[in-house]
Design goal:
The protein has 280 residues and is an alpha/beta fold. It has two domains: 124 residues, Aldehyde Oxidoreductase, domain 3; 147 residues, Alpha-Beta Barrel (TIM Barrel), CATH 3.20.20.70. It is built from eleven helices and twelve strands.
């Protein structure tokens, strides 16, 4: 499942390789592995999950040595079981070893995000609610981590501050209230730029609906009964997004309220790395 061209992912992989190889390259491998040694290696899953990061792992191996033969056996977005082979790499043993850690760091981290996302998505079964991530990503790795959310069956929220107008509580406080921020936002937004506004209470939601101008309302840290009431109040006029305290065990009951989206920063900031290994 290739969703982003290699060209856009390569800079972060190149940076990670520079970080790992340093000024002198892999001194251990250079010291103990004869230059002409060749091997076949495999990236294997040591636990069940959803695969992500194979595209990036392949980039890492090819950046170190374009002559390496890299074959993906389980593509990004596929389910894996313990013992499954995700990727095979053949060629220079030194090259494989020099790229190994960067490839595994990306693949394990991103597979963990995809696996956690898939767990959240499973809780939405029977509803039209979608699971989406946030901007709570590792600095420098946002594109890769948001890609992993897609591999897990989730959806992406805005990528950055320039994608959409998202008016949060601090904007409302600094600008003088809901009416002021919505009027200012609608006055400056182009016809291609959507406006989302965060509310904490049903009274704030009522004011948003009265003023108008928003496309999406973010229902932040509301109880499940309040979320259900909020969906009734909106009546399909706005896209609804429930956020805050979104644990997997709560997702099903939140989806039952009829919200359009459940967003969770945990998908990217709290995912556990999936256990993968590279074996010669």
């Amino acid at each position: 499942m290739t969703l982003i061209p290699d060209l856009l992912l390569e800079p972060m992989v190149r940076h990670a390789l520079h970080e790992d190889l340093g000024a002198y390259g892999d001194v251990t491998t250079r010291a103990v592995i004869p230059a002409d040694t060749t091997y076949a290696a495999r990236i294997n899953a040591r636990e069940a999950g959803v695969v992500s990061g194979m595209q990036i792992a392949a980039i890492a191996f090819r950046l170190v040595d374009p002559a390496l033969r890299v074959t993906t056996r389980l593509a990004d977005g596929a389910a894996c079981a313990p013992g499954d082979t995700l990727m095979e790499i053949e060629g220079s043993a030194a090259s494989i070893l020099s790229a190994e850690r960067v490839a595994l760091n990306f693949a394990g981290r991103l597979s963990g995000i995809a696996t956690l996302t898939a767990g959240f998505v499973k809780e939405t079964a029977g509803t039209a609610t979608r699971v989406t991530c946030t901007r709570k990503t590792t600095p420098g790795l946002r594109a890769a981590e948001k890609l992993a959310v897609l591999h897990g069956g989730g959806f992406n929220h805005r990528y950055g501050l320039s994608d959409a107008i998202l008016i949060k509580d601090n904007h409302i406080a600094a600008a003088g209230g809901i009416r002021a921020v919505l009027q200012a936002g609608t006055a400056s937004a182009s016809h291609m730029l959507k406006i989302e506004i965060e509310v904490d209470t049903l009274d704030q939601l009522a004011e948003v609906l009265e003023v108008g101008g928003a496309d999406v309302v973010l229902l932040d840290n509301m109880s499940t009964p309040d979320l259900a009431r909020a969906v009734e109040m909106v009546g399909g006029r706005l896209v609804t997004e429930a956020s805050g305290n979104m644990r997997r065990e709560r997702v099903a009951e939140v989806c039952a309220t009829g919200v359009d989206y459940v967003s969770s920063g945990a998908l990217t900031h709290s995912a556990r790395t999936l256990d993968l290994g590279l074996d010669f």
